[in-house]
Design brief:
Layout (H helix, E strand, L loop, with lengths): L2 H13 L8 E3 L2 E4 L1 E2 L6 E7 L22 E3 L25 E6 L8 E7 L17 H5 L3 E5 L4 H4 L4 H7 L7 H16 L5 E11 L1 H11 L9 E5 L12 E2 H14 L5 H6 L2 H7 L6 E2 L8 H6 L7 E7 L3 H4 L7 H12 L3 H7 L5 H29 L4 E6 L20 H4 L11 H20 L22 E3 L3 E3 L5 H16 L1
Parallel strand pairs: 2-5, 7-8, 7-9, 9-10, 10-13, 11-12, 13-14, 14-15
Antiparallel strand pairs: 1-2, 3-4, 4-6, 6-8, 15-16
Helix pairs in contact: 1-16, 12-13, 12-14, 14-17
């Protein structure tokens, strides 16, 4: 499909009245939804995509939903998964949390619109698919069917133990949150046509931990065939920086120690513990090399070209570090010590671009270090995916969002781009025409990419695909949009060398 036609497809949804016939029949029963803020979009909330993972189903792969009789009202969000800091304005935490939500502007089940599945961030221990800034209405109005969902977090989603491996049938434990993602994708393939979505044009998207999940799915044989394209925002196959995945043996040893601390050395005793007690006293890892969903270290999978050859749209933000590090903290001695410990004989090269001759220099370098390593990671994924024969579109977000009264600005920080790609701008902030235009542009890029694998369209600044020789620069998404400078090439070259050295060990 030509780019000009893509925009025509999107604009067609702007004035159409969403009148998809209800109730909608899915594999578990019939449901009805509710109107979004505009009558042209319908939203279906709190749809169960797997059985509640409670009792004997705690720490097991998702199981089928029990079908229901009659018509289920899908008008309110389901419970968020167990977490200590649940997002505001959502039902409270519960183990019974495997629910998803669908936004659609389709008028019939025959429209075959592109589908976007959103994977939320939060470090694998907080977050949900029902957070206000993940509202899919604006993307749905531009032509996508948007799905958000909950996946298990913390100890409930990423806990490993030898007894779990023994009962799994795959000698595998951990990654239950990732199994939830695959279950949501399988639900989409079975049911999304009823909402006017195309099961053969599914794009997975996520930010931070959600982007790491996206990368893991791109690298996993369990994800093969379940999605056509992928979008990753500020996270990739090694996480935020250069690091190996946790091995199952290490994760299981940690699980044994934690079980002993909880006074529940056996799996039966662990399952008998209340969710509240596990949440209070337990902890989880993150993605684990389990030999099943993640068969080997993801950096090995990607560097050897064994990942799924899907087109990608990926990038990071200019001020990532302000999300993780409070400006003005740290000192030169501490920074230098950590640098020499981590980089060894390469430390002097690192300090040329991240100097620490004074405390103020070290504090600035601490912030830029997060930005640079994450930016290198996204660039490297673009390289590796293009070498795999797929298209890669790389962005660098630089716009500083306005803040609500009384809130400090953290610049173009980690997560700052989310409200623009969803067009859920904070109404409390003094928004400008630049904010509105950037949000309108990003939603168009995202939906175009989901529709065709190419973000470009009529009226949009041209975004060329990544090419090592012809276009090795990102599209800058800022006050002005255009191909430009992202991470310092000297910094990229340093991390190229460091990564090569790490990979050789």
């Amino acid at each position: 499909m030509r780019p000009t036609l893509v925009m025509g497809f999107i604009c067609a949804g702007l004035s159409a009245h969403a009148a998809i016939p209800e109730p909608i029949s899915i594999d578990s029963g019939k449901i009805t939804g509710t109107a979004a803020t505009g009558a042209d979009v319908r939203v279906f909330k709190g749809i169960p995509y797997a059985a509640p993972p409670v009792g004997e189903l705690r720490w097991k792969a998702p199981q089928p939903v029990a079908p229901w009789d009659g018509v289920r009202k899908a008008e309110s969000f389901g419970h968020v998964c167990m977490q200590n800091q649940p997002p505001a304005a959502t039902p409270g935490p519960s183990e019974d949390c495997l629910y998803l939500n669908v936004w659609t502007a389709a008028k019939s089940s025959h429209e075959k619109r592109p589908v976007i599945l959103w994977n939320y961030g939060g470090g694998f221990y907080v977050g949900s698919g029902s957070q206000a800034m993940y509202d899919g209405e604006a993307l749905a109005r531009k032509g996508a069917v948007v799905v958000t969902y909950n996946y298990r977090l913390g100890m409930f989603g990423f806990f490993s133990h030898p007894e779990l491996a023994k009962e799994s049938g795959h000698n595998s434990s951990g990654n239950y949150g990732m199994m939830d993602a695959v279950a949501a994708l399988r639900w989409i393939h079975k049911n999304i046509a009823a909402f006017g979505g195309d099961p053969d044009r599914v794009t997975i998207d996520g930010e931070s931990a959600g982007a790491i999940m996206v990368a893991a799915l791109v690298g996993s044989r369990e994800g093969k065939g379940l999605f056509k394209r992928a979008i990753a925002q500020s996270g990739a196959f090694m996480g935020i920086g250069i690091a190996k995945n946790i091995t199952q043996s290490d994760a299981e040893e940690a699980g044994i120690r934690l079980a002993a601390e909880l006074g529940a050395p056996s799996l039966a005793q662990l399952r008998a513990k209340s969710a509240a007690e596990l949440l209070k006293n337990g902890h989880g890892e993150s993605l684990v090399i389990d030999g099943w969903y993640i068969p080997e270290d993801l950096s090995t999978i990607f560097s050897q070209g064994k990942q799924n050859p899907v087109d990608i749209l990926i990038g990071s933000n200019r001020d990532e570090g302000t999300f993780f590090i409070r400006p003005g903290t740290g000192n030169a001695q501490e920074f230098l010590s950590k640098t020499r410990t981590r980089f060894g004989d390469m430390a002097d090269g690192y300090l040329k671009t991240h100097p620490a001759a004074s405390d103020s220099e070290a504090q600035a370098s601490s912030l830029s270090a997060v930005r640079d390593e994450l930016g290198w990671h996204m660039r490297t994924w673009a390289q590796l995916q293009s070498q795999r024969g797929a298209k890669a579109y790389w962005y660098y977000f630089t716009h500083v969002p306005p803040t609500a009264p009384g809130q400090p600005s953290r610049g173009a920080t980690h997560t700052a781009e989310i409200r623009y790609m969803f067009n859920t701008l904070d109404p409390r902030a003094p928004l400008t025409e630049t904010d509105s235009m950037l949000a309108a542009t990003m939603t168009s890029y995202w939906v175009n990419f989901a529709a065709t694998g190419n973000p470009n369209g009529k009226g949009l600044t041209q975004w060329p695909a990544y090419d090592d020789k012809k276009n090795a620069q990102p599209l800058v998404l800022g006050d002005h949009i255009g191909v430009g400078t992202g991470i310092d090439p000297t910094v990229l070259a340093f991390f190229d060398g460091f990564y090569a050295k790490q990979s050789a060990h």
